[in-house]
From TrEMBL:
Biological function: Probable carboxypeptidase.
GO biological process, alphabetically ordered: proteolysis; secondary metabolic process
GO MF, any single term: acyltransferase activity, transferring groups other than amino-acyl groups
Alphabetical list of SUPFAM superfamilies matching this protein: alpha/beta-Hydrolases (SSF53474)
Protein source organism: Morus notabilis
Domain of life: Eukaryota
Gene3D superfamilies: 3.40.50.12670, alpha/beta hydrolase (3.40.50.1820)
Pfam annotation, one family: Peptidase_S10
Record keyword ATP-binding present: no
Keywords: Carboxypeptidase, Disulfide bond, Glycoprotein, Hydrolase, Protease, Signal
Name by which UniProt lists this protein: Serine carboxypeptidase-like 20
Assigned protein family: Belongs to the peptidase S10 family.
Keyword Transmembrane belongs to the record: no
Signal peptide (from-to): 1-22
Length: 499
């Protein structure tokens, strides 16, 4: 009688350990201020200390379990860019489980409604505030806020290993890394770390399958050479302006941008683009009431250097507007970091970039009750939550991402590169060019892809599991502008179905 009883207890213990309830009970989110309904799936959030020192690096995550099949659906890590922007950007404004309605009166707690286009309908998603110092992630040692590409990828890899130890029931699920904008740097560098860890036998063994990047910063030359042809193709600059710039710069706007004759022609390009919403050229660009945009020097210098904020949205509950004027510190050399078309900006200088009305996210995430509900430390510990922080010093030290993409695709990992085709911040022209530059054979010719019985964009497939896709009419943050189409291509790609 003793053995069967012991066996029953052993099986019961195993079922507890490897069921969805094996997740840390203290991290379970049971309610959220502003939401009156029932969660369609379980939510967890909290901190993982990645260096064994409570005063060291504490990375904050919010984990949403799939509404469909948590045990078999992929686990997807989502990263927003910046550098310095919280992944609650994606949670609140893009593909999270809720749509946020601005509170009335303005400044009061927003109301939350279920999002019909959330990516958690088909996947488990981890929203991570990274690197430390971003969002709710913090350290009591301010020297930890100085970081770069390599350190960030190493830290995030450590986070993942510890996260899967805390959530062992998900270790066998297919795992993907995803992100947009400056996460075009975060994602492939992290993917490389994960792939290396698997080769080296690090435990737990992550079931890594691939990654996806949207309107992604990738390579200074390809990104830097993309804007002028994009602006001309979109009828934002005249034939004369375009031809003069192309001739003066010899078509190499990045490498020749500091040369006097080329620079003088790029000034004409900049002047023609003043006032355009760089994140979606079809959307209005809102300005502060006292802004004289056409005569503002800061407006000219602000055009394509910010990758972290969003624009208008086609969602049922639009919550953001865009205006000019906020100063944004970027600590890396500008020419080595983002789009280098504007050579008058010195390395480490404070530059003026388009900013946003992020009142909905800020009001909600800085509410004391919300912080308590999601297990975030109080403001006295983390500081005020900002969508994009100026607290970190970030250095772009990994160079071009093209070697990373080539190495990972040659190892067989699946890669989706997608672009909103009306983004002028990281134009699709650059992404299309660098994917083509890999020299892979085209296995699926350029063709339209369909969503809701309409052409939603175009797709081209290469060997080595590389896919390039555009989303018609979308801006810099595709799921915010085209949520239905985004859920469509996301679902099909994760399920390895034709898009």
């Amino acid at each position: 009688m003793g053995k069967p009883k012991f066996l029953f207890l052993f099986i019961s213990l195993c079922s507890i350990l490897f069921s969805s309830d094996a997740s840390p009970p203290r991290s379970l989110v049971t309610q959220l201020p502003g939401f009156d309904g029932t969660f369609p799936s379980k939510h967890y959030s909290g901190y993982i200390n990645i260096d064994g020192n409570p005063a060291g690096k504490n990375l904050f995550y919010y984990f949403v379990v799939s509404e469909r099949s948590p045990a078999t659906d992929p686990v997807v890590l989502w990263l927003n860019g910046g550098p310095g922007c919280s992944s609650f950007d994606g949670f609140v404004y893009e593909h999270g489980p809720f749509s946020f309605e601005e509170g009335k009166p303005k400044g009061s707690l927003p109301k939350l409604h279920l999002n019909a286009y959330t990516w958690t309908k088909v996947s488990n998603i981890i929203y991570l505030d990274s690197p430390v110092g971003v969002g709710f992630s913090y350290s009591k040692d301010p020297t930890k806020y100085k970081t770069g590409d390599q350190q960030t990828s190493a830290d995030t890899h450590t986070f993942l290993l510890q996260w899967f130890e805390q959530f062992p029931e998900f270790i066998s699920n297919p795992f993907y890394i995803s992100g947009e904008s400056f996460a075009g740097i975060y994602v492939p560098t992290l993917a490389s770390q994960v792939a290396k860890g698997i080769k080296n036998g690090e435990k737990p063994v992550i079931n890594f399958k691939g990654y996806m990047v949207g309107n992604a910063v990738t390579d200074p030359k390809f990104d830097g050479d993309a804007l002028v042809p994009f602006a001309h193709g979109m009828a934002l600059i005249s034939d004369d302006i375009y031809e003069e710039a192309r001739a003066a710069c010899k078509g190499n706007y990045y490498s020749n941008s500091e040369k006097g004759h080329c620079n003088s022609k790029l000034v004409r390009v900049r002047e023609a683009l003043v006032g355009i919403n760089i994140y979606d050229i079809l959307e209005p660009c809102y300005h502060s009431p006292d802004a004289d945009i056409l005569n503002s020097k800061s407006a000219n210098s602000s055009l394509p250097l910010s990758f972290q904020q969003l624009g208008m949205t086609k969602k049922p509950l639009p919550v953001r507007k865009r205006m000019f004027g906020r100063a944004w510190p970027f600590e890396a050399p500008v020419r080595d970091g983002l789009v280098p078309l504007w050579p008058q900006l010195a390395a480490g200088s404070r530059i003026h970039v388009p900013c946003f009305d992020d009142n909905v996210a800020s009001t909600w995430l800085n509410d004391k009750a919300v912080r308590e509900a999601i297990h975030a430390e109080p403001e006295s510990v983390t500081g005020r939550w900002d969508l994009c922080t100026s607290r970190i010093q970030y250095y772009h030290d990994a160079g071009s991402m093209i070697p990373y993409h080539r190495n990972l695709t040659m190892q067989g990992y699946r890669v989706l590169v997608f672009s909103g085709d009306h983004d002028m911040c990281v134009p699709f022209t650059g992404s299309q060019a660098w994917t083509r530059s890999l020299g892979y054979q085209i296995v699926a010719e350029w063709r339209p892809w369909i969503s809701n019985s309409q052409v939603a964009g175009y797709v081209q497939g290469y060997d080595h599991n590389l896919t390039f896709l555009t989303v018609k009419g979308a801006g810099h943050t595709v799921p915010e502008y085209k949520p239905g189409e985004a859920l469509d291509f996301y679902s099909r790609w994760l399920e390895e179905k034709p898009i």
